[in-house]
Amino acid sequence: MTAALPGFAGRTYLFEVDNGAAFRNSYSADGTRLRWEGLGESAGQYEDVPLHTAAIAPGIWFISWTERSGITVSHVMDLNSLTVKVFWTWEGETGRVGELHTGTLTPA
């Protein structure tokens, strides 16, 4: 039996975060990879990353990845309401730092 593709597979979204950050997130056709591109102040930054995914409920997905820089990102994407809860962590001067944010998705 073949698992169903994630609802975000093969799609691109503009992801706008409550702190003003914005990204263009393009997901591979099979839903296993993400290419994120920074917009605005983050313009010019991008990376292709493998994803860890799990279905939570119809249209709701948990997605996580680790970037080359050591930043970890975890999303709960609600494709029904086009909203995201995101938690990212990075190594700060005094240890690991984490932030929780909300954001919106706009199909691109």
UniProtKB/TrEMBL annotation:
Every copy of the MoaF-like domain together lies at 9-94
State the superkingdom. Bacteria
Tell me, what's a Pfam family for it? MoaF_like
The name of this protein is MoaF-like domain-containing protein
Q: Which organism is it from?
A: Kitasatospora cheerisanensis KCTC 2395
**InterPro entries per the UniProt record, alphabetical:** Calycin, MoaF-like
